[in-house]
What does this fold into?
Amino acid sequence: MIETLVTTRVGRVRTLRAGPDRAPRAVLCWPGLGLTAEEFHRLLREGEARGVAVLAVDPPGHGRSDPAPDITWEDVAEVARDVTAVVPGAEFLLVGHSAGATALLYGLRGIAGRAAGIVLGDGAFHEGVLTGDDAELLRQNEEWLRQMTFPDWDSCLAATRAELKAWDADVEAGVRDLFATTPDGAVSARGDLRTMTRWSALLRDYHPRQAPRTDRPALVLWAAEALSPEPEGIAALRQRVPRLEARCLVGSGHELFWDQPDAASQAVWSFFDTGCD
It folds into this structure.
């Protein structure tokens, strides 16, 4: 896998690329709030085996990307345009999880004419999941970062493994990249607090009825055991994204690319092969 820092108008964005540097079709992956490119380690590895270019990003303010405390959905469209230039001329299937699914609906605007379709992994059809004013969102993110701090790697991996339904080398790679060793030897989740709070505010104010319109084919992967599944939100989103189909991943929690990696991966590649036209 090749790591690149792409310069965008909101700062440098880290990308991971697997597969060829030129291809007629490619995949762009955007992880959920607080997560990093390695959430899609399996898709990256499988893309390389298939000879398909797969890009995954650390969203601004996450992982090794620069902070962007004032980011807007319009900025997201520009970021999508800039990072997809890593594979020039390719037509992209966009794959997002949670907040990343919502981000990529806006990202479609940045790659008009180069989007084959979009997979929305348990995101973009939710409303009201995040609540509170900006101060409360800041407090929530501070608490999340506090909870995601562990005395050592063994306790970190044990705690995260206990929360997930699956565990293999791909999932572990994603979890390991989410965390970093702090100067005092502890292990803590990566992420810029102000930027994460800004992302939370954007999601708080989002509603599927106001999603950008697109005629691109879309697949919702609905995690059956997520905390707030909203099939009625899928119906609302379909008013904005008419070529939308929904598939329920039975037995999956919200972290579907880690809870059900086989099913989620298979759904993405099936849509890549036959669902985008």
Q: What stands out?
A: The mean pLDDT is 91. The two ends are 28 Å apart (CA to CA).
